[in-house]
Design brief:
Strand content: 35-45%
CATH topology: Methylamine Dehydrogenase, Chain H
CATH class: Mainly Beta
Strand order of the largest sheet: 1-16-17-18-19-23
Radius of gyration: 20 Å
CATH architecture: 7 Propeller
Structural class: mainly beta
Helix content: under 10%
CATH superfamily: YVTN repeat-like/Quinoprotein amine dehydrogenase
Number of helices: 2
Number of strands: 35
Number of domains: 1
Length: 422
């Protein structure tokens, strides 16, 4: 198999722009949760230190913002409706657009009806909501189309609030619906019209709740074919992004067929290797992407029982995977793992706390940003030797959405405000 390379799932018109000037999908320009060059403040607080601006939000959502061509987009409920908002990078709201009635979160402090991040090619913004609504606007706020997946393909049976975010491939938007009961599928919609391009069933038999997945797919090129790599229902699968055809699948994730192994943290891809946190933060494994049919016996590189992450997705940097242990007795532990072998390169520990990390960390240059549910943002220096200086920054409101970095700015979405730190 030829060495796989990450696909940024960006249109060709984006490639002339600096990558750090874009954060056009949930985990950033290349899906890694990191940017190699950049600097973020190590210290800031709710009193204004290190704060460039903050903007009030009209409703509570947990979706991570995105930035494309100088505009920031996020989803939120507005007066009971699923809505998309746009801000400029100085914090001024440019437009808002509302659609159908929202389906609220289950009342949990970590959920909402607007959990999924939008995605944009610079001209069109597409958002996905718990209600099943997929909605598209032009970058200047004009409604283009909307479509409800639940009305068309079947109801939502997830135990918790939807988490997966859409991804772009050429002129299509791809969404994964993975649930234990009801329909599970991948669907590709035309970016201009919302019409179905292809729809592929993705159904595996699992124990109770273990088929529920809140992860976001990756787009990677394997032997010249762009694969949609998705993680859920105890399997990693690769589908042809053009046709939806299943190319390969790997099990081995839940060998004892245990129940309640829903998947929250997304997998990450390092040089064609898919690293998979699973088992509610108890196991980590690596699978070589590609092949044909069931590749469980040939493509699983390693699987280890080790404390890692349940909900916070890992970060990829220089061929390594950086993992934040988000809950339990080991919460706050940072691990650096070699993707090819599973070798633990180093580990460190953030200041002790009983609070949970729901946000996925990001890495900017040599600084790791880890927001916590209690409004504390941990800023940590890292190097090949391990964890360095750590600062605790208190912003006084809960953080569930993940941070992003663009144009020299660290942007965080809290319960009530959008914060820009510089």
């Amino acid at each position: 198999m030829k060495k796989s390379i990450l696909s940024c799932s960006l249109s060709l018109s984006f490639l002339s722009l600096p990558l750090q000037a874009q954060w056009s999908s949930w985990r950033g320009p290349d899906g890694s949760g990191s940017v190699k060059e950049g600097a973020v403040p190590m210290e800031f607080d709710a009193e204004g230190k290190g704060v460039a601006w903050k903007a009030a939000l009209p409703g509570r959502g947990c979706s991570t913002p995105i930035v494309s061509r100088g505009l920031l987009f996020l989803t939120a409920p507005i007066e009971g409706k699923d809505s998309i908002l746009a801000f400029d990078l100085e914090g001024k709201e440019k437009w808002r657009q509302s659609f159908d009635k929202e389906t609220p979160g289950r009342g949990q402090k970590v959920g909402s009806g607007a959990n999924s991040s939008a995605v944009s090619d610079g001209e069109t913004v597409v958002a996905y909501f718990k209600s099943g609504l997929v909605a598209a606007c032009s970058s200047d706020g004009k409604k283009l189309w909307d479509k409800n997946l639940q009305k068309e393909y079947g109801k939502d049976t997830l135990w918790w609030d939807q988490g997966t975010s859409p991804v772009l491939f050429e002129k299509n938007v791809i969404i994964a619906v993975m649930q234990t009961e009801g329909n599970s599928y991948l669907v590709s919609l035309d970016l201009e019209s919302g019409n179905e391009v292809w729809k592929t069933e993705r159904k595996f038999e699992t124990a109770k709740e273990s088929g529920d997945s809140y992860t976001t797919p990756h787009l990677i090129s394997v032997d010249g074919v762009v694969n949609v790599v998705s993680f859920g229902a105890d399997h990693i699968t690769g589908h042809d992004a053009k046709t939806g055809k299943l190319l390969w699948s790997s099990g081995g994730i839940n060998p004892e067929v245990e129940g309640m192994w829903r998947t929250i943290a997304s997998s990450v891809v390092v040089d064609g290797i898919v690293v998979v946190p699973h088992g509610r933060g108890k196991y980590l494994m690596a699978i070589k992407a590609g092949g044909k049919g069931d590749v469980t016996e040939t493509n699983v590189l390693w699987r280890k029982e080790m404390v890692n992450t349940d909900a916070a997705s890992p970060v990829v940097s220089d061929g390594k995977v950086i993992i934040l242990t988000d809950r339990g007795k080991e919460r706050g532990k940072i691990l650096c793992v070699k993707a090819e072998t599973g070798e633990l390169l180093w580990e460190g520990k953030l200041p002790k706390s009983a609070k949970t990390f729901y946000s996925s960390p990001i890495l900017v240059g040599d600084t790791l940003c880890c927001p916590r549910e209690d409004g504390v943002v941990l800023m940590a220096k890292i190097s090949e030797k391990g964890l360095g200086e750590v600062k605790e920054c208190k912003l006084g409101q809960s953080f569930i959405a993940s941070p992003i970095y663009v144009d020299g700015k660290l942007i965080l979405r809290g319960d009530d405000f959008l914060w820009c730190l510089k």
